[in-house]
Amino acid sequence: MDCDKCDDEAVMHAAYSGLHMCADHFCRSVESRTRRRVREDNLLPDDASPDDPETWLIGLSGGKDSVVLTQILHDTFAEDPRVELVALTIHEGIEGYRDESLAACRDLTEDLDVRHELVTYEEEFDLRMDDVAVEDPMDMAPCAYCGVFRRDLLSKYAAEYDADKLLTGHNLDDEAQTALMNFFEGDVEQMAKHFDASLGAFPGAADGGGDRDGTPVRVSTDGPFVPRAKPLRDVPEKEIALYAQLQDLPAHITECPHASEAYRGEIQQLLFDMEENHPGVRHSIMAGYEDLAAMAARAYRDGGGPEYGECERCGATTTRAVCRKCSLVEAVHAAD
Ligand code: SF4
Ligand SMILES: [Zn+2]
Ligand SMILES: [Zn+2]
């Protein structure tokens, strides 16, 4: 089958758009969807300048998503003095897994000449996820600890490096799964938080900041946390994997041995089946979800935002006396 845009042979067929594309046209399409998202989300504000550049911290795990994100952002902004990229890799202490993906991160950032920082649970919290998974003092899935620790470090280092935004490699499948999980759990407040934390456009978007014709705008970006964004969220997971392969990027593909999000796995299968039978369903879920989540964000904001204070132990921003990360670290150490 030929590419729909040239005479070369097609390497992929996107059922949701009906397009067959050759390697070259496919890669350009992934890049242009990513750049369009950066533009529509207004990630680069008008007042960014070479004297006062934006710093974007990229969460670089070494998996295909974050590797592709880093590559495309580098290709787009390496020559733009208004943007500085910093890649941050978090080592959880998972034998044989993160060591290999760390090598991928180093290869990529050396190749691109992007600043690369590494932080470890061992140095930060004096623990390793391999031990946490065994001790499990709170009787939870390993990912429940790991997610809290990772978020804490991303926030801490985003602040330490003076980052204006934290960018992660979440793709269309990830976001559609999260959207459905929030629906199925009936958690409208979580939808509102999801929208303001990482989904909506930044104010002053190209369409004038309105939300009728363009991307809905975040209700609040002035909270205590560095705002997050997901420039790959229009691109399906399979296409990101294909892009990494076609571009010969050093992505690491093994799954974490502690991966345990069973519920997300069920939703993933459900969405996979739906997409097979109804191509485009992930895109339409996200279009509707974004509008609903934006309305929810406005409704919750009218009721006043949460009250933040500082954690008594570590000083991190939290709504509790002792933050969740400190409670979990203490529980793990108490079980040693
Ligand atoms: S799969 Fe779970 S335990 Fe493994 S790195 Fe991810 S969050 Fe951590
Ligand atoms: Zn082509
Ligand atoms: Zn704390």
UniProtKB/TrEMBL annotation:
A biological process from GO: tRNA wobble position uridine thiolation
Residues at which ATP binds: 59-61, 65, 90, 169, 174
InterPro entries: CTU1-like_ATP-bd, Ncs6/Tuc1/Ctu1, Rossmann-like_a/b/a_fold, TilS/TtcA_N, tRNA_thiolation_TtcA_Ctu1, TtuA-like_LIM_N
Nucleotide-binding keyword on record: yes
Domain of life: Archaea
Species for this entry: Halorientalis regularis
Keyword Protein transport: no
Binding of Zn(2+) 2, residues: 311, 314, 323, 326
Gene3D superfamilies xref list: HUPs
Keywords linked to the UniProt accession: ATP-binding, Metal-binding, Nucleotide-binding, Transferase, Zinc
Protein name listed in UniProt: TIGR00269 family protein
Domain 2-thiouridine synthetase TtuA-like N-terminal LIM as annotated: residue spans: 3-27
NCBIfam families xrefs: TIGR00269 family protein, tRNAThiolNcsA
